[in-house]
Protein 1
Amino acid sequence: MADTHNHTGAGGLRRRNMPYNPYLMAAAGLAAIGGAWYLYNNRRKPDQAARPGHHNKLKLLLPLGRSLQRNGSVYRQSRCFSALPSYTQPDYLQHEEASVLVQGRANSRMAILNRPSALNAITASMAARLNRLYESWEENSTIGFVMMKGGGERPFCSGTDVVALYRLLNEGKTEECKALFQSLYKFVYVMGTYLKPHVAIMDGIVMGGGAGISLPGMFRVVSDRTVFSTPEVQIGFHPDAGASYYLSRLPGYLGIVATQILRIETIDSFFCYDTVEEIVESLENQASESGNMWLKTVLNKIKEASPLSLKVTLQSVREGRFQTLDQCLTREYRTSLRFISKHISNDFTEGVRARLVDKDFAPKWGPPKLEDVTDDMVDSFFSPFGEHEPELNLPVAVREPDV
């Protein structure tokens, strides 16, 4: 039976019951985006002839076009809206707006992530601006659908700006790190409960939080340049921003691998075990017998990763299978704050230092071995906060009042 979202709220403003396909590269999503992208880029006047080969770029999905028209979308020429105002604003506001640009024609809006030099990595100000933009567009009855893409040639979005987090932690600015997670996870939740059709153009690099801000929306499109990964265990962190929700809903154990697509039977045969140690042992046995290069590559990646992150991630994805999006985000928020707190381990700052700052690629993990990571240590990443640390505050009562 297909998973469904029930996002019906007061006055019918939430998304109605509809089948939800969480699979990363869904063919239906690709076709739907083709229709929306076609409509967005190729509007013409009634008396304007179609260009030769016009339909060869992307196939138009007519049902999507009809559904958008029912929502009041009229495709016509009009001026573009710029994110940069003509009047003077404080420097911090100009910087915030420059990192997320806005384009709009007729009854559509597009958010453009605009930090190409940083692979469009998400900062706290970007997440806050996305929240404000999307909430205002949702309330605007003249807007029929919304889109998102990455600025620059290479990336859609490389995820959270972990180097910025690393520097903030070294400066003792933990509260600013929390603000980033709060804004980002709220936006992921807003995307997962968004009223209007949303199209994410996932062209180029899509990593970590970049997947988190695009997959929960209604439609996703990928290209032959799309590179998807959730590599957080390599920097001593965990797949977050809703990753435990969508990875856990992939077929079989595919969500644990998050690498090139192989036969499901192959993946299931190695990743069906209860513990990371058993998974590693299974891979080692088969790699030594077959000499399979994919198995050796996966083994090397696992052994390079933080042992603590591996065990936390495995439990997170497995718990996510039985939780709603808001529950997954609440749990991931607890886990993220535990990783940056350094109370249990310094793996996050050490991983970012070794792979992205000093680039010596020799992180000193703590604990250094899988067998040194206890169940109690892993469980502590998921336990609710005490009275001195508030839980993640998501607008569930507003967006899903009947839940």
Protein 2
Amino acid sequence: MASTVDGRKNFASSVCDFLVKYGFDGVDIDWEYPVTGGDPGNAYSPQDGINFVLLLSEMRNQLTQLALDINPRQIFELSVAMSPNTQIAKYTDVAAISVIANYIHVMTYGKHFMITNSLSTLNKLIVPKPSIGIFDANNLTHYSAAEALQYYINRGADPEFLAIGATFSGKAFKNVQGNFNQANMGLGLNFTGTPAVGELPGMIDSGIISYNGIKQLMSSATVSKSARQLRNEYGYMDYSSSSGVEPSSSGVEPTSSGVEPTTPVGPPNVFSSYYDNTAKNNVLYNPSSKVWISYEGIESLVEKCNFAKANNIQGGLFIWDISQDRDNTLINQLKGIIN
């Protein structure tokens, strides 16, 4: 479609028709991925990067004309979703796209690669030193959300029009092998599979669990001290049970990792909850079933909000996707933080 003039014109025209018919005020283009192809079987070409810019240019022209035809004060926004992986992003002209698009959404979430067979957190916000980061099986390097955003800025993106990606889902792994403890929170341990749909509440695909399901697991989870401290400070109820009562403390002093065990609630086969203060990410682990889940809870989302504010990322956060937080638990808390 993007490789021909007619294909680009027809696609842009159909998007404009859709916006008018259903009352939308913009469109986000998520091409996964130019040149590298994305999923197995996807067609790709060395010209994809150039054609991507041409496609966006055609869409911008038609959206501008549509606004003039309907209401000169109407603005139809055009945004693009981009990979945080520099080995994928390098095939796109970031500077050119920055001129065309209203916002660049960097998909800084969901970075697990099954090929490694070892656990890493869903998203790492800050890298304290080059040797610490998330293993990327595509290019055998380490990276973080902070580094991904800096990459786009270095290539011509204005931070005013960048947005940080967050997710209302988690990645689940089973048959975790090795010694899980409060110091390592399971990072680097091997696993041999992922839970299928139906094995855990809220599973939306193999190894992918919605925040709706995570909340069900957390209703009987023990809570780390760092999570409880943050909730008390901001008034969040992220880890409470369905009755709104926090699990009682065991009175055990915090370990050197900053994690305090608490008395389990419910049956013995429960998840324990941890917050990784280095990666700025949340972890659930069930020592009986050997299931390990990395997700973005309110602690991680607070860190992303603070990072956006501190670094003038004025596009803020975008979420994939809001349906995975059915009762708006996280959205409502984020609204208070951002405001």
Protein 3
Amino acid sequence: MRTELLTTISFLFIFFSTINPIPHLPWLYLSLAIAAIAIPPLAKRHARRPNAGGGGGDGEMMNEMVKEGYELVGKFNLGDYYPRHMWGSGLLDFHGVGPRCQRLAARVREHFGRVMEERRKVMMREEGGEVMEKRDDLLSYMLAMPEEERFDDYDVIAMLWEMIFRGTDVVAILLEWAMARMVLHPDIQSKIQQELDTVVGHRPMTDSDIPNLHFLHCVIKETLRVHPPGPLLSWARLAVHDTRVGKYLVPAGTTAMVNMWAISHDETIWGDPWVFRPERFMEEDINVFGSDLRLAPFGSGRRVCPGRMMGLSTAYLWFGRLLQEYKWLPTHPIKLTECLRLSMEMKKPLVCRAVHRNKIG
């Protein structure tokens, strides 16, 4: 899996050398995310984007499908508040959510179906004795299962889509926020690069370097604090009996959400909460995996995000490699306006310029 990820990073480095400024960085992060969850064919399809204007190609199609899915999940729908028999006919679907979901499902089945058929053809050629590139990923594993244990195509497509739809956005959004902060704070960017030069040297950064990159950890944690990708949606809880939270009565049956964004910007918890200052985590090491509720971006308790370890380690690796290889500079004024959909995104996507560090100076 890491080999595929590093291969995709190498592809992006070639891309950076040919197109500057870098257009709409989130689609690049999504390519990396797809590779990281061990579905390399989709990473290659997504990376196959023909021009900076965003026209055409499998990459643009994947980007559009994921974007449409996020919008539909976060969109207000009156029918959500009524029993299914009342809105199943479409009478209460004033926003057209149902037809849009059906069209998206058809596109997902068609797109992933093509990927599966291509992979089956490769596997058949391998069985015929032809030497092919080694395929050690989730899709190949599912297609190679014994017939009595094998999932049908609809189940495979559903699992692939779920991994991409909910397994990529948080990391991609976290990286976009972190890179925006690096462009806005060149002093912090330089400090990370100095740490990378000292700890890693001239070789490419790997997973084994992550524990030794302390300031890089602090920058990612501070990004999670200032810009939590999931400020509300992962913490819905139902009160099973009347309870009190501070001075408030929460009646039984109430659905409540923990506002992590409010906690991470609370002046009684964080000094200068509106200031981006990664050094605060050098002063006090705070666990972000749910044991310290001052900063729990992945949730806590029994419903904590199961992919939190992989997601964060992947973010460390990508972030480190992007900063190790390039200096990131502004091309337009960067606005940190937030937009809450399924996750909290940058309202205006990041566009910046990448300059190879060997050429600096």
Protein 4
Amino acid sequence: MPPELDGIVYRVVQESLTNIVRHSDATHVRIAVRVEGRCVSVDVVDDGRPGREPDVVDGPAPSAGYGLAGMAERVHALGGTFRAGRTGSGFAVGATLPLGSAVPT
């Protein structure tokens, strides 16, 4: 995986886990990083409190915290998509990035 993508995937997982520890009281967390075709995807799903934030699809909601906004900004800078929101039993964060991504100059 290109170093730029490696760093973004790491930051999405890191910030998601930080949010889980701070806000969710989760007992289980699932982290999945997959390369599918010409994309890499990362998903972090917990079973804790769903959170107060509205669902986010391809960008942060106006009231989203700095963590979600920062993740979305990093993902979008490389041409990817970002989503975050409540699930039936917790909260999920996901990002999909094209493998041909390069940091814009």
